[in-house]
Design a protein that fits this description.
The complex is a heterodimer. Chain A is an all-alpha fold. Chain A has 13 helices and two strands; from the N terminus they run H-H-H-H-H-H-H-H-H-E-H-E-H-H-H. In chain A, strands 1-2 form a two-stranded antiparallel sheet. Chain B has five helices and 15 strands. In chain B, strands 3, 4, 5, 6, 8, 9, 10, 11, 12 and 14 form a ten-stranded mixed beta sheet that branches. In chain B, strands 1, 2, 7, 13 and 15 form a five-stranded mixed beta sheet that branches. Chain B is globular. Classes of the chains: A mainly alpha, B mainly beta.
């Protein structure tokens, strides 16, 4: 009894000492909701100083991410097109995203992992800060078709949300920046850095001979665009899908004809899970994607110069490259309970 | 027990507060004053007066002789700098925040809200100032701070483009006798300034303009003087040689470029109240 009383009081004195010394405590904390910079990744681009990740902010972001209330008729949530099982890309049955009233979008919803490390978002790079990304999905008439004013009004009329925003951001009123900050907190923790490839880079695992051959082939044939640890140089290129591209792509943002039909080189993280492929989801398998580079390149004025004669890839090489690409699959992020919708 | 714990926690917090708070502030050494800047919107030589949407009362005429009226005028002013000839420099503090009350240095001038047309700069060091510089629009630095509240919140009226994300520097909307459907919308935005690495021509149209105006007087600032700079913004000059039949709507950086090029000539310092 007496001992238990003492042990109960000790932490209080510990707190007092901590307070007087103004120093970081050595106590091991739960780091589930702490932003972590993987050593082998590019430095985070997200403005964490303006919006540090907290448990309450993350959990609020998760609730919002899964809440169809964000759409006009309460039918579509962010999670409809960004599912954990596919590394937060769309389900494989949806080449193009499905919005309210089953309206079809114009592009394939990409994976949201590792968004904390990139500078430009969407296939055309029109958005340059993660906070502003959800505004497009909310207000686009073929996605959620709702005005941000209405979303804010709905949230303010909901007692639970008012309380959760107050707990996360100490605000009495729900406003746009807090909504966007909560969603960003949820998204920046979608860090996918524990694939077998990452474990190989960290010296924790080995790759098979086939995977290593695939990696060498990938470096020789693909790496000029799919560069670096995230397999993208994040440039905008026309990879020869159409002789007359209908989607203007990057041109919509730069208003420059030399960018017609160009799209951002996507990261290939979890590419095994994110079928179908390309901005319009036209290819269902990685084999089809590689065959496109081998034999399907269509010429157009903006075609990337490196693809003028295609990329010669034999069937054996395809098998090896696909083996390597599958080492980019991170089963930890697809199974991490902190993202579960519960 | 619970009360006891709370008391200890409170005590701990109090000690934390005392031991970690700043030392008492340095005594003021320099004298500072306040400067007000009023933005007064005109169309040519007439004071701007807004009309209701749908009004067929066309009060104004473009340089090319097309009749129009105005339902909305708003623009962002940011990065205000005052300078003097003896090395006086005042740079308005900038801060982007989710908390509307913490936003500093960014101002949305709205014709529909007279209070928004006066910017008050405090803590301006004592001295003689002869020039004012500001940005029309919000540049990369502001956009890259991320989501913000108050005058920068799109849900409460901040003019913002989602698809090419950034703030719209100036909005001019109204009706013209020249169009069957009389509404026109001129949204001048675009802040990206990216030179392609391959050496080809500049992409993007950065329509954020830095405007420098001479005060034409020696404006004295001190703790006992509160001068007011009266700036006139001429919407007719921004519209320039617009032909509403060819350009009833502007919704992209490229289309807004010709208007952004007119910004500099559209602002003048009318007078300074000393």
């Amino acid at each position: 009894m007496c001992i238990s009383k003492h042990t109960k009081q000790l932490p209080l004195w510990g707190l007092l000492l901590f307070a007087m010394a103004c120093q970081e405590s050595d106590v091991v904390k739960d780091d589930t909701y702490v932003f972590r910079q993987p050593e082998h990744f590019p430095e985070a681009t997200y403005t964490l100083d303006n919006n540090p990740v907290t448990e309450k902010g993350f959990l609020l972001g998760k609730k919002l991410f899964n809440d169809p209330m964000l759409s006009r008729d309460g039918s579509v949530a962010c999670s409809n097109c960004h599912q954990q099982g596919t590394a937060f890309a769309d389900s494989q049955q949806h080449p193009l995203s499905k919005g309210v009233e089953d309206r079809e979008g114009i592009r394939n919803a990409p994976s949201l992992v590792n968004m904390a490390f990139i500078n430009e978002f969407f296939w055309d790079g029109g958005v340059t800060h993660l906070d502003f990304v959800p505004l497009n999905a909310i207000e686009s008439d073929f996605e959620m078709d709702e005005s941000i004013e209405n979303v804010i009004a709905k949230l303010n009329n909901n007692e639970t949300y008012r309380m959760l925003f107050k707990e996360a951001f100490a605000t009495d009123e729900v406003t746009t920046p807090y909504l966007l900050h909560a969603l960003s907190q949820f998204m920046v923790l979608m860090i996918s850095d524990n694939s077998r490839y990452d474990q190989y880079l960290r010296g924790e695992d080995v790759l098979t001979n086939e995977e290593l051959s695939g990696m060498e082939l990938f470096e020789a044939k693909c790496e000029s665009c799919h560069a670096g640890v995230l397999q993208s140089d994040f440039s905008y290129r026309n990879n020869g899908l159409d002789a007359m591209p209908l989607d203007s792509g990057r041109n919509r943002i730069t208003e420059n004809s030399r960018d017609w039909g160009k799209f951002r080189v996507p990261s290939l993280r979890n590419v095994e899970l994110t079928s179908p492929y390309m901005h319009d989801g036209r290819f269902e398998t990685l084999d089809e994607v590689l065959e496109h580079y081998n034999s399907g390149i269509q010429d157009f004025a903006t075609l990337d110069p490196s693809l003028k004669s295609g990329i010669s890839i034999s069937n054996d090489e395809k098998t090896k490259i696909i083996s390597f690409l599958k080492t980019l699959t991170d089963r930890e992020i697809t199974r991490d309970p902190k993202f579960f919708n519960n | 027990m619970k009360t006891f714990k709370s008391t200890i926690a409170l005590l701990a917090l109090t000690i934390l507060f005392i031991s970690c708070s700043d030392e008492s502030e340095d005594p003021q050494t320099a004298t500072e004053g306040t400067v007000s800047i009023e933005f007064d919107n005109f169309v040519g030589t007439s004071q701007l007066n807004l009309v209701e949407e749908g009004s067929a009362d066309y009060t104004y005429t473009t340089a090319g002789g097309q009749e129009f009226n105005v339902t909305r005028v708003q623009y962002f002013i940011s990065k205000i700098i005052l300078t003097g000839e003896n090395g006086e420099v005042f740079e308005d503090e900038l801060n982007v925040s989710a908390d509307a009350d913490e936003i500093k240095g960014y101002y949305l001038i709205q014709e529909s809200e007279s209070a928004s047309q006066i910017i008050e700069l405090s803590n301006v060091p004592e001295g003689t100032y002869t020039q004012i510089t500001f940005n029309l629009g919000i540049d990369e630095e502001g956009v890259h701070e991320g989501a913000a509240g108050g005058i920068l919140d799109p849900a409460t009226g901040a003019p913002f483009w989602n698809w090419n994300a950034g703030y719209i520097g100036m909005t001019i909307e109204g009706q013209t006798a020249e169009l069957v459907e009389p509404e026109f919308q001129i949204h001048i935005g675009g802040w990206k300034d990216i030179v392609p690495e391959d050496g080809t021509a500049q992409k993007f149209y950065n329509n954020v303009k830095t405007i420098t105006l001479n005060l034409d007087v020696d404006m004295q600032v001190s703790s006992s003087l509160e001068p007011e700079v009266h700036v006139v913004t001429d919407i007719q000059k921004v519209l320039g040689s617009i032909d509403f039949t060819a350009t009833p709507a502007v919704h992209s950086p490229a289309a807004g470029r010709t208007f952004a090029d007119n910004f500099e000539s559209a602002f003048i310092v009318d007078h300074v109240h000393q």
